[in-house]
Design brief:
Shape: globular
Largest sheet: 4 strands, antiparallel
Radius of gyration: 15 Å
Structural class: alpha+beta
Number of helices: 5
Strand content: 15-25%
Length: 132
Amino acid sequence: MMECTGKKNGYIQKNFQQPVKRYCQTLDLKDDPDLIQEYVKRHSEVHSWPEIREGIRSVGILEMEIYHIGTRLFMIVETPMDFEWDSAFEKLAKLPRQSEWEEYMSIFQQADANATSSEKWKLMERIFYLYE
């Protein structure tokens, strides 16, 4: 497992043996410090559901990271170059326990309890990078 050094020292990134592409998404949590603390806990290695991590990998996602500040969540998803977002997330929504997880997570999120992951999380548009 990779060591995370923290927000002030940076986070070590995986090196893949292939070109990858990145998707970025955002979602807001309910403005309740106790709910936010529990949401963070439920995404820890110890408390996250193994079936959910396995399902994410099974649809072709190489890495997924979630960051938060206040009520704002930011997700980075890294995939192979041939990854197809819509078909992968349609497949993910049908995997065992995925709808149960999404319903459970809706307790914490500003989102519909019946929404799929791709309906709750909003894809972001990149507006800057260090142009070459």
